[in-house]
């Protein structure tokens, strides 16, 4: 379909930057998720790609053609907003047909393309309904159809499922991924939901303060976070601040050899990379609570230094509140000044099918 190239894009509002020196290449047919907390610049970046914001610097190219200064209607892009932005005085058919009418296409072609778009999003018999008669999920399907009917080269999705309940959100994201793969359309998807990014993306761009923390496929983002921020933002992660002396951690609960220079260090453990065993020693961890999720338990442990750990355990073993336990680290990441400086060999073998079970 199309290739998107973003070169050193910046957007300033007064003296502050929403996006600064951002660059990205999106391949033909690829789905890339822009993931980050509120205020990280991801929606501003998407609006610049769609032409709704003018960059302060940098350029945007689609199939090697510079579209940086083009108006939204002159770009080969289609954008789906979080708010749906449907016209309530029009029925579903005319909402979807609006852009085609602006292009002055023949009525038979408009009808054929609208009906095809409705079928694509599973709303074949909804053309005559008013948008106020639709559920939130159906309205979002209409918004998607309205973008797809224009046959854009680039599809832009700005947190389209944020207002929907969890089950509907999960179902719609699966449908969107199926449609995207079936059409082979190049897509950028903005979200602050890590589960959406992990489930949808070919690659994830983790954004922070208008810049990029890491760009990688979902499995690498989870297994090999390059910064402490990424490690804490993707999935559930335990952090323990320690000191290293002669390559050994000085911490009463973890006896690990970490081959890095002496000094302060932040250790990070996934809940599934920790295990528990009963303990009788003074200063051992104390079970705060144990939550049964059916497939596994999450046990909260309070350490003597005030740190609370989350540990994933088998569901058939309950841990009594107040009991003494010793956490055992089977894999870990080590960060210094937000940068990954070491990870244990086993850290790359964490099971991705358990990623979302402990959020």
TrEMBL record:
Gene Ontology MF term list: ATP binding; ATP hydrolysis activity; transmembrane transporter activity
Ranges annotated as spanning the membrane: none
Any one biological process term the GO annotation gives: quaternary ammonium group transport
UniProt keyword terms in alphabetical order: ATP-binding, Nucleotide-binding, Transport
InterPro entries: AAA+_ATPase, ABC_SmlMolc_Importer, ABC_transporter-like_ATP-bd, ABC_transporter-like_CS, Mo/tungstate-bd_C_term_dom, P-loop_NTPase, Transp-assoc_OB_typ2
Annotated GO CC locations: ATP-binding cassette (ABC) transporter complex
Organism, as annotated: Rhizobium mongolense USDA 1844
SUPFAM superfamilies, per the entry: MOP-like (SSF50331), P-loop containing nucleoside triphosphate hydrolases (SSF52540)
Similarity comment: family membership: Belongs to the ABC transporter superfamily.
Location of the ABC transporter domain: 4-234
Identification of the protein by name: Putative spermidine/putrescine transport system ATP-binding protein
């Amino acid at each position: 379909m199309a290739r998107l190239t973003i070169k050193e894009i910046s957007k300033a509002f007064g003296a502050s930057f929403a996006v600064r020196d951002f660059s990205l290449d999106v391949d033909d047919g690829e789905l890339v998720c822009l993931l980050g907390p509120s205020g990280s610049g991801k929606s501003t970046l998407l609006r610049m790609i769609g032409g709704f914001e003018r960059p302060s610097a940098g350029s945007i190219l689609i199939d090697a053609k510079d579209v940086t200064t083009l108006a939204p209607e002159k770009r080969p892009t289609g954008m789906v907003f979080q708010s749906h932005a449907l016209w309530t005085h029009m029925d579903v058919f005319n909402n979807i047909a609006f852009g085609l009418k602006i292009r002055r296409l023949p009525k038979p072609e408009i009808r054929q393309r609208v009906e095809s778009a409705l079928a694509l999003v599973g709303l074949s018999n909804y053309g005559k309904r008013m948008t106020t008669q639709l559920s939130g999920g159906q309205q979002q399907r209409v918004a998607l159809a309205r973008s797809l009917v224009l046959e854009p080269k680039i599809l832009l999705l700005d947190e389209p499922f944020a207002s929907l309940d969890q089950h509907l959100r999960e179902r719609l994201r699966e449908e969107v991924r199926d449609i995207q793969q079936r059409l082979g359309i190049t897509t950028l998807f903005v979200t602050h939901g890590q589960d959406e990014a992990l489930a949808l993306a070919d690659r994830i761009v983790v954004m922070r303060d208008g810049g990029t923390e890491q760009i990688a496929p979902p499995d690498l983002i989870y297994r090999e976070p390059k910064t402490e921020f990424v490690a804490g933002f993707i999935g559930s992660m335990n952090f323990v601040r320690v000191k290293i002396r002669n390559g050994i951690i000085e911490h009463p609960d973890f006896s690990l050899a970490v081959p890095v220079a002496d000094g302060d260090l932040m250790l990070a453990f996934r809940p599934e990379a920790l295990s528990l065993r009963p303990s009788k020693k003074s200063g051992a961890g104390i079970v705060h609570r144990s939550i049964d999720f059916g497939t596994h338990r999450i046990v909260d442990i309070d350490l003597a230094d005030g740190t609370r750990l989350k540990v994933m355990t088998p569901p058939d073993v309950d841990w009594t509140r107040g009991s003494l336990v010793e956490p055992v680290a089977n894999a870990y990441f080590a960060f210094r000044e937000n940068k990954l400086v070491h990870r244990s060999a086993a850290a790359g073998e964490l099971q991705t099918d358990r990623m979302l079970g402990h959020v």
